[in-house]
Design a protein that fits this description.
- The complex is a heterodimer.
- Chain A is about 35% helix and about 25% strand.
- Chain A has nine helices and ten strands.
- A six-stranded mixed beta sheet of chain A has the order 6-7-8-3-9-10, sandwiched between helices.
- Classes of the chains: A alpha/beta, B mainly alpha.
- Chains A and B meet through helix 2 and helix 3 of A and helix 6, helix 7 and helix 8 of B.
Chain lengths: ~250, ~325
């Protein structure tokens, strides 16, 4: 079964062609990397797939269902979740409150106006569970603003995991972290359940090759290579466009 | 967080006890002022749901005072309905109107939202000003207070009116407290802080914004009902953008996004105005200075100041 299939996807911003005829697919349970230099269209691709932008043409299928042009909120119900390049947790709220809010979104009662939210056990249980899993159990009651940068990135992934996704899109999960924090994030991402399909944008090549088994390389909005980890490593086109001549 | 909670419970207990005793220790003029605080408190509580909790700044909220006030007037004077039918009918109509206005307004945010709400309130102002049926620019007078003589009480007695207002105010405060503690209340805060994140989690934020707009408009309209019950008179001036601005001042000075902030802001507004008008003709100047100082020095308004002091004392 394919988890994500993108066919001939194009997106323009005015005269600028950000995505041109992008086609790729990944099987269920894949760990897939989107690589490419800055401005290659990686984040735009994630934004189109997750419903933030409408494609000009092309087709997107998630678990064999056509999801082209569906809004963000509906895609969450189809099992898609994403994280952002910039931390998006709510600074004033505690880690637990942030996670509860995230978990409640897919559970009944999230629009209840009258009942005390502390009386909903399910979101709290799931939030606590997710926190433990993402290594945030020690800072559960700290406000998101007070977390270390690495913990903030962990929370960013944790928030996406609360939606119980089948397909998880991570936009530079380790951006801006120290080597120590990155090692921790790498372990956490590697420990995600194997039935979740993962698409990840990341600039840290070591992390990518450790976590991901396949990759698609974009350059100027076009796919210039795709394949398994080893194919990508060997590809001279990739080395020239992305890794730089020094790696050749 | 727990500081704020302790403070809130303490403040409610003290204020509740104080308010319940008020008519027995205060003179009629002072009782009247406290009634005014409660009326504007209800108005500001409604506005706070939009401004404080959801981060949507409305500069047209006085229109809801008008909708509630004129609504009650129309039902009781023009249609001759009894008060106990007119109040729920006005609430239902205000909710429907708030919903319809909300559909248009929530499509924009930031300055756009600000302007849309202002435009609607000017529209309502013009409507009230021009409609002869509700008195036009003369306003609508002769609106009677609810007749509760079946309880053996005379509502034209200040203490009785006070009791009536106190109950209405307590109900609104209770509703507001429940909503703030509910999952819905938390989603509003999420929208205020990061709407994009809330959408990415699967929340259909437009529906939440429409719901809170309706709730906010309905509560503020109820404030309008209370206002007209107190004064017996409704003027188009009540719907002016200046009144909307004063509502915003109450919310911000008291502490936006807190349960009691708008009430404390309404108290500051009513009491300062009453105190200053007795001393000087230039009271607006001093009122304005007070508001500027509060906003500049006490982030989070008077409630923010109080919880800051609490935290400092505890240390």
């Amino acid at each position: 079964m394919t988890a994500l299939k993108v066919e001939a996807l194009s997106k323009r911003f005015g005269g600028l062609r950000v995505l041109e005829n992008v086609t790729f697919s990944i099987p269920t349970g894949a760990r897939h990397a989107l690589l490419g230099p800055n401005g290659a269209g990686k984040t735009t691709l994630i934004n189109v797939v997750s419903g933030w932008l409408r494609p000009d043409s092309g087709k997107i299928e998630i678990y064999d269902e056509d999801t082209t042009g569906l809004p963000v909120e509906k895609l969450v119900k189809r099992g898609l979740a994403r994280s952002f390049q910039r931390n998006s947790a709510i600074g004033d709220l505690s880690v637990l409150e942030n996670l509860c809010l995230a978990c409640h979104a897919i559970l009944p009662g999230h629009a209840n106006l009258w009942r005390d939210r502390a009386s909903y056990a399910q979101p709290i249980d799931r939030a606590t569970e997710t926190a433990a899993w993402m290594g945030l159990d020690k800072v559960l009651h700290r406000s998101a603003r007070e977390l270390s940068y690495g913990e903030k990135r962990q929370l960013e992934v944790a928030l996406a995991m609360c939606s119980k996704p089948r397909l998880l899109l991570l936009d530079e999960p380790a951006a801006g972290t120290s080597p120590g924090e990155r090692g921790r994030l790498r372990e956490l991402i590697k420990s995600l359940p194997s039935d979740i399909s993962l698409v990840m944008i990341e600039h840290d090549i070591d992390l990518v090759f450790d976590v991901c088994d396949s990759a698609t390389i974009l350059s100027y909005g076009q796919v210039i290579a795709q394949g398994s980890r080893d194919d990508i490593r060997k590809s001279t086109a990739v080395q020239n466009a992305y890794l730089g001549a020094a790696h050749a | 967080m727990s500081d704020v909670r302790t403070l809130t419970i303490l403040a409610i207990a003290v204020a509740g006890a104080g308010l319940a005793c008020a008519p027995f220790v205060l003179n009629d003029y002072q009782v009247n002022l406290v009634i005014e605080v409660m009326v504007f408190g209800v108005f500001a509580i409604g506005l706070n749901f939009l401004v404080g909790y959801t981060g949507l700044v409305s500069l047209g909220h006085a229109m809801f005072l008008g909708i509630g006030g004129y609504g009650f007037g129309i039902f009781t004077v023009l249609l001759d309905w009894p008060w106990w039918a007119a109040i729920p009918a006005t609430i239902v109509c205000s909710a429907a109107i708030s919903f319809l206005i909300g559909i248009v307004c929530i499509r924009s945010s930031g300055v756009g939202f600000f302007i849309m709400t202002l435009a609607f309130s000017e529209l309502m102002y013009g409507l009230a000003f021009k409609t002869k049926l509700v008195g036009g620019d003369d306003g609508m007078s002769g609106i009677s207070r609810p007749d509760i003589s079946f309880l053996g009480l005379d509502i034209y007695n200040p203490e009785t009116l006070y009791g009536f207002m106190f109950i209405a105010f307590a109900i609104v405060l209770f509703v507001s407290w429940r909503v703030i503690r509910s999952p819905f209340g938390m989603v509003l805060v999420g929208i205020r802080e990061n709407e994009k994140r809330m959408r990415a989690l699967g929340y259909r934020t437009q529906w939440y914004k429409l719901a809170v707009f309706t709730l906010s408009g309905t509560i503020s309209s109820f404030g309008g009902v209370l206002l007209v019950i107190k004064t017996g008179f409704m003027s188009p001036e009540t719907l002016s953008w200046m009144m909307s601005g004063e509502g915003l001042l109450m919310v911000i000075v008291g502490g936006a996004g807190t349960l009691l902030g708008p009430v404390i802001g309404a108290a500051a507004y009513v009491l300062l105005r009453a105190g200053l008008t007795g001393i000087t003709d230039h009271w607006v100047l001093f009122l304005g200075s007070f508001f500027v100082l509060t906003v500049v020095f006490f982030r989070g308004g008077l409630v923010g100041l109080a919880s800051g002091v609490m935290a400092w004392v505890r240390r």
